[in-house]
Amino acid sequence: MSNIALARSCRPDQFSKVVGQDIVIKALKHAISKESFHHAYLFTGGRGVGKTTIARLIAKAINCTNCLEGEPCNECKNCEEIDDGRFVDVLEVDAASNRGVDEIQSILDQIHFFPALGKRKVLIIDEVHMLSNHAFNVMLKTLEEPPEHIVFILATTDPKKIPATVISRCLRFSLNNIPEDKICEHVMDILKRKNVPFERGAISQISAAAEGSLRDALSISDQAIACGEGKITLDNVNSMLGYASTLSIDGLIDAIQQDNVDAALSISREMLNSGADAGSILEELAVRFHSLSLKQLSNISFDDSEMKYTSKNLATLSLTQCNFYYQIVTLGRRDMPLAPNPLVGLEMVLIRLFAFQLSEKTNDVLIKEGKKKSSKKHDKLITQINADQPVANKLPKKIDQLDQMTLLTWPTFVSNLGCEGLLRQFLYKTEYDSFSEDKNIIEIKLKVSLEILMDSALIKKAEVFLTDFLKKEISITVEKVESVSNSFEMIEKANSLRDKRVAKEAFKKNAGIMQLLAEFEAEIINESLIIKK
Hints:
The protein is α/β, with parallel strands linked by helices.
């Protein structure tokens, strides 16, 4: 094997070999084949997704003497020199080490000269967000109106740090993270060509650890080859990355399901002693619970890599259990840096999982016992609640004549009107005072406690409604007072509070409910009670 790293020796030399960026590649090849490319490109995306690789391919395709359908030939002198990094008309700059005004000005002075060998000069600036604000300002004018022979290609992992004036002058392409399955397939293809023995499970683990970065996957593969003495095995990869083995994770989940605390703690200690990282163990558990939740809710079929070898005992978990376990594990992962050491942090998370199971089972027992005891007393309890419940105001069921109107009957009269919206809110909040009749006009005096109810338009609307309802001309006078106590709304609130108070006292006489309250140190909240009438 060559001593050159896989990420360098296997860098794509044609657009067709770029992995996972099909839409971007299609657009670029079409533009290059039609010679209608832009004067400035901006590639954004995570590390190792192909930004610099695509930039170099653009430079090569533009200056290739035998370019066919947007693809460089890789045979002409220009292509060979660009691949070797010695083509004078392609200048690649690292903005992290050339971020000042003087460096950028010097580079811009060079590119103003016509190309010596190629068709165009290409300036590639990697990690362009590292440039200072003054350096961006120096580059801005050239970027806005560049000479026809210049093409700028900017690459960054953090586009938010680039001034909007620069972004607006570039043709931007956002590169996605490469899917795990494509990384896995590509790495296996490279290893086969390099005659490196490997286990598929190991490559799947590497692909997951790369988190969308093909370069990271190849770098991890290089490390795995070195650790495995020329071959890549799952055990070596897990040990190298600090991951627990699948069998260990399955054993840990089985111990949790079987309420075997000693076994779970023993397995966790063995995993840490073998080099596994506590955070990685919790991440793997979270992935298992997430996968099972999806499987229970969705009809989507999952492959082995997505289901992460879900154990048989894990399949018996309910959706509620999976949700709680996932939350416990992820919160434990978040708090891991605060733990005295990884072992303590991991064991406390496992203890929480066991505590949740114990609490859930205790709750089930209490509910069953409560049902047995309360079922026998159900009829008696309901009878007792009904007997103890105070009788609401003994009002006539219907009041529709003013000569029957009193302070106490006004709420019933209002409730029978059948009005809606603001009018109902107005009448529900009023308190009856008196009425008088003069020249066939009946004047009703009402009291309100809110300034907003003194609105003349609202009062006029009430007059029209009552006139139509009573078939007599009605005039309403409203007086603002400190408070009202006999409006429909106030009486309803008082009755509701009284009903809930009586119901609460009746509940406290139920043995099953009292047992639950004592077990969970809970109390009955009045606002949570709903009285069915």
